Amino acid sequence: MVIGVLIGYYVPGVQHSFETVQFGSVSVPIAIGLLLMMYPIMVDVKYEKLYKILVSKPIWIQIAISILINFVIGPIVMTALAWATLPDHAEFRAGVVMIGLARCIAMVLIWIHLAHGDDTFGAMLVAINSLLQIALYSPYAVLFINIIPSWFGAETQMTVHVEIWPVAQSVLIYLGIPLLAGLATRYTLIHFKGRPWFEDKFVPFMSHLALIGLIYTITIMFANQGHQIIENIGSVFRVAVPLAVYFCIMFFATFFALKALGVPYEIVITQAFTGSSNNFELAIAVTVGTYGIRSAQALSATVGALIEVPVLLALTYVAMLFRRKLNWSTRSSLMTINKKDIN
């Protein structure tokens, strides 16, 4: 992060170079890094076990909990925090709300993987979030940016209109491409090299690629916005407050609520990260398309990505500490997913 900011501020023309390599509103260098992170995880997802998972009633309960967290609780919490901390900055507030509406589909899988969550269940939740996001993001933007504030007598922003295609494009790029590549790689190599070689040799090698992709992506993101960060440092700190609080509230509330219900660590941490993460690629694309690339809303969405990365990276260490230090119940209940359901 430090290296990226220094490059972005002191190396002339870095941001312009990034802007010339775009696919629509998607920065190609950042997209490459995200795909580099996603691909190894998608290779390791046990697709052959999805049927066994989906016939488990507790799994469906967890899916319902995930939908509640992501599409009801998450947007409400982010909107409330945006209004509580940015009452005098309508543009920044709108950008923060747009981040809260964009549910996780990409980088969350790296946090789940690093914290020893359940990759297969995580991929399933990401896929469900992606499909719901295509249908709900546009009406949610109108609801939370224009309609709900008017109920409390607040002046609304310019009418938000989000087309379905930018949302679908984000899903196709950051989920579809690595999913298809991972699926093809997994079963091709298992067929020709055998499962023992694949799991003992190839998967450990690919896990290093995911970490390289993470470091590369973080460096590129901060280099791309290094000049903006330094020149707008006051605004960055203002926007950082509701975002950092949001990530922590969503993570810890989900974590301890599910742990109290006796849910295994692997599922708890998967739910905690999917509930606290956001699709910053989509939020940036939509704010740039709606308000303009130099707008305060677009700056807020960009800051969202820069705050989310270090906060959730720190939370992976917190998660692993909890995994070692806390007692994890193995009792059976309706809310508990037994090991046989996920292994």
From TrEMBL:
Look up the domain of life of the source.
Eukaryota
Q: Which GO terms describe its molecular function?
A: antimonite transmembrane transporter activity; antiporter activity; arsenite transmembrane transporter activity
The UniProt record lists the keyword Ubl conjugation = no
Q: Where are the transmembrane segments?
A: 20-39, 59-86, 92-114, 126-151, 171-190, 202-223, 243-261, 299-322
UniProt subcellular location: Cell membrane
- Where does it mainly reside? membrane
Lineage summary: Eukaryota, Fungi, Fungi incertae sedis, Mucoromycota, Mucoromycotina
Q: Record's family?
A: Belongs to the arsenical resistance-3 (ACR3) (TC 2.A.59) family.
| Pfam families, alphabetized | SBF (PF01758)
- Which membrane topology term applies here? Multi-pass membrane protein
Q: Which organism is it from?
A: Phascolomyces articulosus
Q: What is this protein called?
A: Arsenical-resistance protein
The GO annotation for biological process reads: response to arsenic-containing substance
**InterPro entries from the UniProt entry:** Arsenical-R_Acr3, BilAc:Na_symport/Acr3, Na+/solute_symporter_sf
Q: Give the record's keywords alphabetically.
A: Arsenical resistance, Cell membrane, Membrane, Transmembrane, Transmembrane helix, Transport
GO CC list: plasma membrane
- Keyword Membrane in the entry? The reply is yes
